[in-house]
Amino acid sequence: MMTPELQERLTSIINGDKIVVFMKGNKLMPQCGFSNNVVQILNILGVPFTTVDVLADYDIRQGIKEFSNWPTIPQVYVNGEFIGGSDILIELYQNGELQQMLEVALAS
Ligand SMILES: N[C@@H](CCC(=O)N[C@@H](CS)C(=O)NCC(=O)O)C(=O)O
Ligand code: FES
After folding, report:
1. What domain of life is recorded for the organism (predicted)?
2. CA of 94 to the centre of ligand 1 (A)
3. In angstroms, what is the span from residue 47 Cα to ligand 1's centroid?
């Protein structure tokens, strides 16, 4: 069980930008291939996004898994809603849904 403080921290991070990526490393230096997949896709689409390096904060690394009910990193949020990890982002990118979803989100 996570503390209300951690829950509040996560909520505030997630609400801090339209696209938020919890990942290992950062945009310029992803520290895992799965996190790198997400960064590359978002870069190809040319959208602005915020990243959170879970390797720098163990509470966030563990807390986000419980918060999202999703066991792994990376995790992508769009307009406060959990979208998925690397596999899901790749699928949504390949079938065109991601671009559409992000266009709508960024226009809102
Ligand atoms: N199939 C996952 C791959 C991600 C994954 O397996 N992440 C692992 C290794 S980086 C993970 O987060 N393990 C727990 C941890 O490192 O805290 C996806 O689609 O995102
Ligand atoms: S850090 Fe080893 S698979 Fe992601």
Report:
1. Bacteria
2. 20
3. 23
First to last CA, the chain: 33
* Pairing outcome for strands 50-53 and 19-23: parallel
Closest protein CA for atom 15 of ligand 1? 72
Closest Cα partner for 51 from 28, 72, 26? 26
Number of domains in the chain: 1
Where residue 21 sits, what CATH number does that domain have? 3.40.30.10
Look up the ipTM and state it. Answer: 0.99
Q: What is the pLDDT along the chain (108 residues), one digit of tens a residue?
A: 799 999 999 999 999 999 999 999 999 999 999 999 999 999 999 999 999 999 999 999 999 999 999 999 999 999 999 999 999 999 999 999 999 999 999 998
Distances (CA, A) of 102 to 10, 43, 76, 96: 21, 12, 12, 10
